[in-house]
Amino acid sequence: MKIKVYWPNCSLRFSGTEFKGNDALFLECSLEEAREQLFDRLTVEQIDYCLREYDSRPKPGQSAYGIETDKICFLITKDQKVLLPEPWYFPYAGQWNAYNPFRKIKEIDLSAVNELSDIVVEVEAGDF
Hints:
two-stranded antiparallel sheet; 25% strand
């Protein structure tokens, strides 16, 4: 599992999920990691969404702007109370126009999702 970007003081509200100003980490997981550590926290609809997004990702050899696309991704808070599946391109999408709320951070590797509570986010200089 990896975290490369985060959304400080996240204001996202979607379908009853609200981050309420908590930092949202963009967690990238393998399909196996998601099944073993996160799917039990999701609804059946959210799991179906994750699998549809995973199946529709660019295949090897297709352009993905240098972004790893073989991941199932989530916005998650450090305390893990808020977890929302998102497509791999969510922080990079054109929907943000001139304001992208995500910030690039020093990459964090995790072996288990419960390590989130102990991480320290180090913002990297420069544009994202």
